[in-house]
Amino acid sequence: MSFFMGIDPGYSGAVVVLDYKGRIVDCIRLSETEHDVSEFIAEYASDVTFAILEKVNAMPRQGVSSTFKFGTSYGFCRALLVCHRIRFETTTPGMWQKTMGCMSKGDKKVTKAAAQRLFPEEKVVHATADAMLIAEYARRKVV
């Protein structure tokens, strides 16, 4: 099997796995327990050809506590990719959004609509939309 993984870090983000043809195989929200997320990634690790982890930074006017939680989630996701020996790159929101044709400027409705167009059979919610698009971005970089 040849799978691709997209990760939108943060408590309201998700991990999405796509197959070689661009169909969604599975998804988990990062609001699940760390154990559940780790088990999810372990389940697919040997079949993941390539993954993209969204590179995040602190945002203006974001509180210290929020910034710390966001960074912790990013580090957790990055560590899981390293521990499970999944080949990955990081990319900025601007880079993957430009490639996927959905420059959101922070408006989640834009990426949700783009994900719904790309995956019309799937139930797209704000928590999974970006990860879906990031996974497709990963697939397009390889295929």
Describe this structure in words.
The protein is α/β, with parallel strands linked by helices. The protein has one domain: Ribonuclease H-like superfamily/Ribonuclease H (Nucleotidyltransferase, domain 5). The mean pLDDT is 94. The longest helix is centred in the middle third of the chain and has 20 residues, at 64-83. It has five helices and five strands.
What's the SSE blueprint?
Blueprint: E1 3-8, E2 14-18, E3 24-29, H1 34-44, E4 48-54, H2 64-83, E5 88-91, H3 93-100, H4 108-118, H5 126-142
Parallel strand pairs: 1-4, 4-5
Antiparallel strand pairs: 1-2, 2-3
Helix pairs in contact: 3-5, 4-5
Quick overview of this protein structure:
The chain is of the alpha/beta class. It has five helices and five strands.
Number of strands: 5
| Euclidean distance between termini CA atoms | 14 Å
Indicate the CATH topology: Nucleotidyltransferase, domain 5
Low-confidence stretches are: none
Helix/strand-derived category reads alpha/beta
Task: Assign the CATH class.
Answer: Alpha Beta
Rg, Å, rounded:
14 Å
Determine the fraction of residues in helical runs and give it as a percent range.
Answer: 40-55%
Task: Specify the CATH homologous superfamily.
Answer: Ribonuclease H-like superfamily/Ribonuclease H
> Taking strands numbered 1, 2, ... along the chain, how are they ordered across the largest sheet?
3-2-1-4-5
Query: How many strands, which pairing sense, and closed or not: the largest β-sheet?
Result: 5 strands, mixed
Q: Which second-level CATH architecture applies?
A: 2-Layer Sandwich
User: H/E element string?
Assistant: EEEHEHEHHH
Overall pLDDT score? 94
Counted up, domains total 1
Overall 3D form: globular
The number of helices is: 5
Strand content: 15-25%
